[in-house]
Amino acid sequence: MKHVVCFSGGKDSTALILWAKENLSEFTAVFCDTGWEHPLTLAYIAKINADLLDGKLITLTSSKYPKGMRELVAIKKRIPSAKARFCTSELKVLPMIEWLKTQDDECTIYQGIRADESANRALMPEREWSDDYDSLVVRPLIAWKAEQCFALMAEKGVKPNPLYLMGAGRVGCFPCIMVNQRELKALMKTMPDIKTAIAELEAIAERSFFPPNYIPARFHTGWDPKSGMSFPKCKDVFRYIEKTDEDQLPLFAPTSCMSVYNLCE
User: Fold this and answer.
1) Cis (ω within 30 of 0) for the bond into 140?
2) Does the residue 212 lie in any domain?
3) d(CA 148, CA 130)
4) What is the DSSP annotation of 114-155?
5) Per-residue pLDDT at 254 exceeds 50
6) Are residues 51 and 135 in the same domain?
7) Residue 168 and residue 34: Cα distance in Å, rounded?
8) How far are the Cα atoms of 25, 27, 159, 220, 263 from residue 15, in angstroms, in the given order?
9) Are 128 and 188 in the same domain?
10) Pair (35, 106) in one structural domain
11) Is 65 in the same domain as 117?
């Protein structure tokens, strides 16, 4: 039996690595590189690989889209969205399935998924058989809170991905298509190049990075003649976010520091 631990460089998967080191006699850590990771995340993954995994981390990429997110968006002619997260299936799930098929031994997959991340994840069991992976999937952290993940890292002397201290709420891909307004405002202050990355992907797709309802329609300058609906271009969103006070933006409540998880000292 081979124990396969999924790692992305985020708080949950880092805590999962630490959990695995305490609870599994041996395991194989696997990272699916989407080609859309922030350099700080790649550096963090390299450090965790060196410090905790003896340099044995396995990195997978898509055989269909070897250049990652940019190539995927160019071919699909659209950017993934909350309702069409084909980035996850194409760049993470399918590469993992392909790799599993090359393994001679039966595998158990360990995922760092927590129930309080979303309504869908709240419905996921701790253990279940996956026909897609043809393997048992185990989610040891399903009942954990984000604070427990950071606490375990602190206990073991492992620092979190530095992007969390710069205002990021998620770091698996960067910038994530799920970024919310408050998070985006913080990141535009700490890493202005996020605007360049978003504009780049938008130019490749020739479609907006953001959904039509991301900002009020009166601030849109994009227009789709087929649907007869307006949409926000990235420059519209940046302008709106920059001019809007933080406490007027939805989702995360103001915190005592830049981090949405109150990690600043």
Assistant:
1) no
2) yes
3) 27
4) -GGG-HHHHT--SEEEETTTTEEEE-TTTT--HHHHHHHHHH
5) no
6) yes
7) 18
8) 17, 15, 11, 41, 16
9) no
10) yes
11) yes
Distance, in Å, from the CA atom of 161 to the CA atom of 41, rounded to the nearest integer, reads: 7
Q: In terms of residue numbers, what domain contains 243?
A: 166-248
Give the pLDDT confidence of 168-205 residue by residue, as tens digits. 888 988 999 989 999 999 999 999 999 999 999 999 99
Residues in the chain: 265
| Residue 106 burial by Cβ neighbours in a 10 Å radius (0-12, 13-18, 19+) | exposed
Look at residue 14 and give its three-state secondary structure: helix
CATH of the domain at 122: 3.40.50.620
Structure tokens at 182: 């408050």
- Given a contact cutoff of 8 angstroms between Cβ atoms, the answer to whether 10 and 172 are in contact is yes
List, for residues 5-44, the tens digit of each pLDDT value: 999 999 999 999 999 999 999 999 999 999 999 999 999 9
pTM here is 0.90
The reply to whether 254 falls in a domain is no
Contact 136, 130 (CB under 8 A): yes
- The count of domains in the chain is 2
Structure tokens at 91: 């760049």
